[in-house]
Amino acid sequence: MLGPNRYGKAETRLVRVSRDGDTHALVDLNVSVALSGDLAATHLTGDNAGVLPTDTMKNTVYAFAKKHGVGEPEEFGLLLARHFVATQPQVKAARVSIESFGWQRLGPHSFARKGDHTRLASVLVTDEFEQVVSGVTGLVLLNSTASEFRGFPRDEYTTLPETTDRILATAVDARWRHLSASGDFAKSYAAALDALTSAFVNTYSSSLQQTLFSMGSHVLSQRPEIAEVRLALPNKHHYLVDLSPFDLANDNEVFIAGDRPYGLIEGTVTRDDAPPAAAEWYS
Ligand SMILES: O=c1[nH]c(=O)c2[nH]c(=O)[nH]c2[nH]1
């Protein structure tokens, strides 16, 4: 006997940007849909006449985000769940579960993901030298515009369209080497973090590589006690959803937040008169 069952699309990652002139708002959701009802036939005989594709559920999430906007997650969930029950007679129950990720505003189109990033410190001491490296990991930043990527070479495997307006998002992983083993490390850390963040916010980006150099060099220009900055910036891709099959325009408003794979941009920015590192930073 077939027991209780349900099916649906889990973890549709939706980022909805609302553009009110220069000031943007951001909603970042993970939406899971599960439908149940008269679904015995597909399990027992392979008859799919009652099986609305899970792919359709995902499309509905994105189309509704454009059409109706996304208010409170409870309201967006109700909108979707009522739609599936009302339009699919075989569906007797729809559960929509939503995780909503919070973002803190940094500027008109700049945001930092809420939740703590991690401060790092690593020191190395021998009889001859002392080396102090500070850092941060898991600082997630996003600009909803002021980012492009174009002018790159194309070969027979290149499909990426050029863009003059995209989301740029990353989870900053940075380490910086101090010139001296003494100082006000609390103040230095706070100021370095601020320099990294403000450079991300204020750089009109032609590539994440350019933003990386801007972030590293801003730390060095603001903080004389720091000799070198090493950055690893994952490019947290946001793909524009093609809503044209549903006769909806998508003017950089509805995005799929990609998970993997991701671009990984790594680089070092060094003060030109700084002494070289005394030893490798990572063992
Ligand atoms: O800023 C970027 N740098 C790249 O090297 C790259 N490659 C890619 O596919 N997209 C991007 N974006």
UniProtKB/TrEMBL annotation:
<feature type="active site" description="Charge relay system">
    <location>
        <position position="237"/>
    </location>
</feature>
<protein>
    <recommendedName>
        <fullName>Uricase</fullName>
        <ecNumber>1.7.3.3</ecNumber>
    </recommendedName>
</protein>
<feature type="binding site">
    <location>
        <position position="149"/>
    </location>
    <ligand>
        <name>5-hydroxyisourate</name>
    </ligand>
</feature>
<feature type="binding site">
    <location>
        <position position="209"/>
    </location>
    <ligand>
        <name>5-hydroxyisourate</name>
    </ligand>
</feature>
<keyword id="KW-0659">Purine metabolism</keyword>
<feature type="binding site">
    <location>
        <position position="55"/>
    </location>
    <ligand>
        <name>urate</name>
    </ligand>
</feature>
<feature type="binding site">
    <location>
        <position position="55"/>
    </location>
    <ligand>
        <name>5-hydroxyisourate</name>
    </ligand>
</feature>
<comment type="similarity">
    <text>Belongs to the uricase family.</text>
</comment>
<dbReference type="GO" id="GO:0004846">
    <property type="term" value="F:urate oxidase activity"/>
</dbReference>
<comment type="pathway">
    <text>Purine metabolism; urate degradation; (S)-allantoin from urate: step 1/3.</text>
</comment>
<dbReference type="Pfam" id="PF01014">
    <property type="entry name" value="Uricase"/>
</dbReference>
<keyword id="KW-0560">Oxidoreductase</keyword>
<comment type="function">
    <text>Catalyzes the oxidation of uric acid to 5-hydroxyisourate, which is further processed to form (S)-allantoin.</text>
</comment>
<feature type="binding site">
    <location>
        <position position="235"/>
    </location>
    <ligand>
        <name>O2</name>
    </ligand>
</feature>
<feature type="binding site">
    <location>
        <position position="54"/>
    </location>
    <ligand>
        <name>5-hydroxyisourate</name>
    </ligand>
</feature>
<feature type="binding site">
    <location>
        <position position="235"/>
    </location>
    <ligand>
        <name>5-hydroxyisourate</name>
    </ligand>
</feature>
<feature type="active site" description="Charge relay system">
    <location>
        <position position="54"/>
    </location>
</feature>
<feature type="binding site">
    <location>
        <position position="209"/>
    </location>
    <ligand>
        <name>urate</name>
    </ligand>
</feature>
<feature type="binding site">
    <location>
        <position position="149"/>
    </location>
    <ligand>
        <name>urate</name>
    </ligand>
</feature>
<feature type="active site" description="Charge relay system">
    <location>
        <position position="9"/>
    </location>
</feature>
<feature type="binding site">
    <location>
        <position position="54"/>
    </location>
    <ligand>
        <name>urate</name>
    </ligand>
</feature>
<feature type="binding site">
    <location>
        <position position="54"/>
    </location>
    <ligand>
        <name>O2</name>
    </ligand>
</feature>
<dbReference type="InterPro" id="IPR002042">
    <property type="entry name" value="Uricase"/>
</dbReference>
<feature type="binding site">
    <location>
        <position position="166"/>
    </location>
    <ligand>
        <name>5-hydroxyisourate</name>
    </ligand>
</feature>
<dbReference type="GO" id="GO:0006144">
    <property type="term" value="P:purine nucleobase metabolic process"/>
</dbReference>
<feature type="binding site">
    <location>
        <position position="166"/>
    </location>
    <ligand>
        <name>urate</name>
    </ligand>
</feature>
<feature type="binding site">
    <location>
        <position position="235"/>
    </location>
    <ligand>
        <name>urate</name>
    </ligand>
</feature>
